[in-house]
Design brief:
8-stranded mixed beta sheet, alpha+beta
């Protein structure tokens, strides 16, 4: 059984970290910084309790790849895609997805990202593959692993969040300009592997 107090503090701490990283508003950054400091103190104090000897920072400084989920949502042989609203990729399209949340499994993160970005409720039906992005993009300080899932719509309707300009369905022969989150090579490698009925793709 999960410790709800610990999970809550950890979630707040993760949100504060994300806010500090991505927010551009100085007022918001100050609030996130304060929230980060408070939640970190709470974590430290809570972990010192004899009844709950947690130490989530035991391996925190060991460099590891960052996992990201991307979802092929298929309907009538068309693929669900979302149009980016952020500056670097504004107007370009990507598969719905994002970073894995600290308190969710990859599959749970994938379902949540599709809902947040597109408005659709989906059911994951298959792990399509895992891609090492360093093989497709210029090297960064960290390596990203894209975890690709196959899914089908089970409810909801098109209702993108603030990160997304539009939601649409595209055939494989009429794809829009892709954002940097998935290169065409990655996209076609995973898609062709799926269409050919192959096992999950790993590299």
């Amino acid at each position: 059984m999960k410790d709800k107090i610990y999970e809550f503090i950890k979630k707040v701490n993760a949100i504060a970290h994300t806010g500090m990283t991505y927010s551009k508003d100085e007022y918001a950054i100050d609030n996130y910084r304060e929230l980060l400091e408070v939640s970190t103190r709470m974590l430290v104090e809570y972990m010192k309790l004899d009844i709950q000897p947690y130490d989530i920072y035991q391996d925190f400084y060991y460099p590891t790849p960052q996992p990201c989920v991307r979802v092929f949502v298929m309907r009538d042989d068309k693929i669900l895609m979302v149009q980016e609203a952020k500056m670097n990729d504004k107007g370009k399209w990507s598969l719905p997805g994002g970073w894995c949340d600290i308190d969710k499994s990859p599959m749970e993160s994938a379902i949540g990202e599709v809902k947040e970005e597109s408005g659709y409720d989906v059911m994951i039906t298959k792990l399509l593959g895992i891609s090492d992005r360093s093989k497709y993009i210029k090297s960064k300080m960290y390596v990203t692993y894209n975890i690709y899932f196959l899914a089908e719509v089970i409810g909801g309707e098109a209702n993108p969040n603030f990160e997304i300009q539009a939601v649409n369905w595209f055939s494989i022969n009429d794809l829009p300009e892709l954002s940097t989150k998935t290169t065409m090579n990655e996209f076609m490698t995973i898609y062709n592997n799926y269409k050919n009925g192959n096992d999950s793709f790993f590299e």
